[in-house]
Amino acid sequence: MQEELKQAIAQNWLILILVFPFLGFLVNGLGALFFPRKYPRSVSNLMACLAIAGSFLVTAFGLWSITQQPAQAYFFQKVFTWISVGDFQVNFGLMFDHLSAVMCLTVTLVGLLIHIYATGYMAHDPGYARFFTYMNLFMFMMLTLVLADNIVLMFVGWEGVGLCSYLLIGFWYEDWEKAKAGLKAFVVNRIGDLGFLLGIFTLFWALGTVDFAGMRSLIESSPFSLSSQAILGIKVATLAGIFLFVGACGKSAQLPLYVWLPDAMAGPTPVSALIHAATMVTAGVYMIGRLSFVYVHSQTALAIVAIVGAATALYAGVIGLTQKDIKRVLAYSTVSQLGYMFLAMGSAAFAAGIFHLFTHAFFKALLFLGAGSVIVAFHHKEQDITRMGGLNKSLPWTYRTVFIAYLAIIGIPPFAGFWSKDEILYRTFASSNQVLGKYGLNFVLWFIGVTAALVTAIYMTRWMILTFWGESRADQDAQHHLQESPNSMIIPLGLLAIGSVLVGFLGVPALFGGYNWFEQFLEPSFAKALPVEPGVSLFGNEKLLQVILLVMSILAAIIGFLISFSVYIEKPGLAARLAERYQALYQLSYNKFYVDEIYDRTIVTPLIKGSYYFLYRFVDMGIIDGLINFSAKINQWIGKALRRIQNGVVQTYLFVFALGIVVILFYVLGHYFNIRVSLLR
Amino acid sequence: MEDLIKIPILSFYDLAGVATPMMLGILALAGLVLDSWIGKKKPSWIGGFSLAGMILILAFQLLLHIGRANLSGDLGAGFGGLIFFDLFGIYFNYLFLAAAILVTAMSISHLEGKDYNRGEYYLLILIATAGMSLMAGARDLIMVFIGLETMSIPIYALAASDQSNPKSNEAGLKYLLLGGFASAILLYGIALLYGAAGATDFLTLSNELARLKMPDLRFFFMIVGIALVVIGFGFKVAAVPFHMWVPDVYEGAPTPITAYMAAGVKAAGFAVLIRAFLYAFAGEWLQTYQIIWILAALTMTVGNLLALVQNNLKRMLAYSSIAHAGYLLVGMTTLVSSNTTQEAFSPTYAMMYYLLVYSFMNLGAFAVIVVLGRERRGGEMIADYSDLSRKRPFLAVLMAVFMFSLAGVPPLGGFFGKFYLFLGAVHSRLYWLVLIAVLNSVIAAFYYLRVVYVMYMQKEREEVIQPGIETGVLINTVLILSAAMVVLLGLVPNQFLDIIFMTFRKFV
């Protein structure tokens, strides 16, 4: 089990990755704060994009240098000691290993392209400098999250990205709905943070350290430190794994905490692409990858991750089938794809999960930016895809690039999404998790995954058909003004499209004569899943199994395409008739299974109402009112000057006070006599 | 008698122990003379005078601190065992003085042009601070009581100082009545302890507690006495169910005084509780002392749930201060449930740190209310803050910092303070309490963020900016200092922790 020693190499340039976005944040922030009207757009453009470009270049350099080192090496930099209390020490320290290198590359590269795109998208928005301030702050926080060498600093980034997401969703705050969406995002994320915090406490309690390298070496040198200790009867690894996964569910929008993500689409489109598709929402997946050495010690926690992931993948896909908002469909699709990533993580196929994260960042960002381009073409007036159509003629470049992303997401070879999705499905099928294996659940999860792939193909084809193909259903006026977006938006689209074609080839499995370079590269960052050899094979032939699974996932995509095609192109009225006939099912999906309403009625309203009516009205005010009547007589002979004050309120306060005293004294008394009695015995 | 012979005259250490309250008292008397001279025409000058004086006393603390840190070991107590001269007291003196300075600066801005702008207002703050300083240094319950009353009586008067405002009168009188009741309870507890142990100083009390065994009736009296002392201070720190006065008094009192109650009075109450449980009430019997556990859980939960439904910012902050008292009681529970004195230091440090952060984030938030009040924008209702980010972007950023810190968002001071407290509780295996605490801090995020949300995301229906008084230099300084402290306490906590760790170094 003992791996060869990690080689930690101190570097002093790692901090640069963080410094650039922070400078961008400072310059733009101060500009926006002190010259709200005069701050020139060109400056804030340049600062924001240069900042991210700087980070990207440093990351690229880092990636190159880490390939020059032996496989077990990683870079680190201790910037300063943040907290040191007794045996609890936290550094502001950065760690650049293979995993954070890949993640940093994703964040900075996609981030850079989205920043460039945003200069075009936001060109006519008055809050321009403020927008880029928040964007750069977000990049700073995200990179802190990725580079953190300990879980507390990771939590700082974790909260920070949540905060920025909240600010950016509510960016156009003239709109009540948008502001509300921002608040919802933050509140749901707080629930996740609760889990994250408890996870930190659990790990620190069990291991006595919070930095990743320290935890890992501790666990690997004595694996029993996690499996033998228990809190409240639950194994520490399981407890920590579940707590942290609750955090991941909040941030990465998994069941049942996914509700904020679709609403978050209220923010500007570049934000949706950057934060709510490519980077922040994948933080949960990254965190599990980072802590893989904890997760491999709990089959239960892994099984829960896998089950929740698979369920989310299918569930969100089904909702996506009926949505009408161009961005909302993509939002549910993101939730669904994140589900795939968690399915991979839960099947202990960490590299496969990160691979899907990587490819997904490209094609999903591209889909969102394409949707943004469509929205700009409609002058922000139309987002309903049932009133679009035929855009392939008026927006040719947007259409071409989005089409590539479409092929990637439904899993057509050789586009990026195919390789990563197929890898996940194969790894799920072959999972050796004992908890899953006991009930044959890995086959069930695989089946759910394939079904979700079918659903993905259906709703994405529907999305393409309604938006780009066929005849235009937009009104004449809007059609007249349709025009292709400026180059600052189209060029990033093109680059992302190239990415969506190429990045998949980094992970071509050995079956196709590939080398699976991606997984090889990431391997040193992850703990070894307990047994590595595949648990199942068909007729003793692993390759045959792989081929069959592969064919099935391609089939799912093609069948999905055909279904959508026949419903929306061949028989145009069929969709409406189906919705008519299966009214209940349609409504269920269209209304997102009424989950928002359920949460509202069961949690939010009772909490607010309970607090207001019971605690505030009844206890604080009601009892008081009652006592006012009761003590009306007393009031009569109290002087006029004091009437206002002694209208009974003070008596009540004293009453509660005295009640408290009595209860406490009874407690003390009881305690005393209990002991006395036990002593007398 | 022998004691008297041993200490024939006041020694240097006697004086050092009471130097800070004494200087504050002298400053107040000097201010009174000055007040009779120019107080009628220029009351703010009295404020300036006391501000300058307090800054000097704060600087003097540095001398005391260095002097005390260089003396090794326990110096014993001054005045025949009445008062400590130690770093713990000096730390709290720093805190009280910093709070009093900020409050005075805030008050000069707040009172400008108001009819209750009088010299004695500032002098009462000085006397209250002297009382707090006595409380933090007390080594005897009688001394604690004297300090408590020296602090409380000026605060009652200050709460009622806005005579033209019925709410302020109401606040003062309510606080006085209930405070009197709490003092009586406390005194009764002290009397019981005296009756059982024959003395009121911490050392004798702890010796007697260790000596007496369970069936002894004197032991029973002592336990009841301790419970009553806890209740008396539970009132001052606003623990549920002794919290009912808090919202009314916080809402009615002039805003700077409210800030002072949140920052100073609470810190003084906890200073005494910490000291008492470290020195006097320590012992193995404490481990079964679950009252504080229950108080902590109740206080957090009730405070947070009630804060959720408030529309008045001062009332909301009042309930939030109750909730924060609950978090601090989590620290007390950890302290009480620790086995050794060594172990008890960790939650002590956590509470000391939390009180510092808490003071600054509250002072800052109240200072924002003062600013808006000066500009005739109201400022007491949460709705007054709508669209503040556009009208006063810088003020909105500062308010957001205070709110995020109160909500415990990293990397601000409030986060680390809470984290440190809860970590200690996890160490002491108080799992359920930690779970309740963390759940509570999730709920708390709702109402703090509501303010940020109103500032940044709600558009005001109509622009109603009436000409008010321009923002002053003093209040801006208060705002920036508080915000800087909140950020620094989160980013470089160790610089502050080092000072805290020194307080009990002699034991380690």
Your description of this structure?
The complex is a heterodimer of chains A (681) and B (508). Chain A has a three-stranded mixed sheet with strand order 1-2-3. Chain A has a two-stranded antiparallel sheet with strand order 4-5. Chain A is globular, with a radius of gyration of 28 Å. The two termini of chain A are 56 Å apart. In chain A, helix 3 (98-121) runs antiparallel to helix 11. With 681 residues, chain A is mostly helical. Chain A folds into three domains: 14-590, no CATH class; 593-643; 644-681. Chain A has helices spanning 14-34, 41-67, 98-121, 128-147, 151-169, 176-207, 212-221, 224-227, 236-251, 260-263, 269-278, 283-290, 292-295, 299-320, 326-346, 350-377, 391-394, 396-410, 416-429, 434-438, 441-468, 476-481, 487-502, 517-522, 542-570, 574-581, 583-590, 595-630, 632-636, 649-680; strands at residues 7-10, 73-85, 88-96, 230-231, 234-235. Chain B has 508 residues and is an all-alpha fold. Chain B has one domain. Chain B has 20 helices and two strands. In chain B, strands 1-2 form a two-stranded antiparallel ribbon. Chain B starts with a helix and ends in a 6-residue tail after the last helix. The mean pLDDT of chain B is 85. Classes of the chains: A mainly alpha (681), B mainly alpha (508). At the A-B interface, strand 2, helix 5, helix 6, helix 28 and helix 30 of A face helix 7, helix 9, helix 12, helix 16 and helix 17 of B.
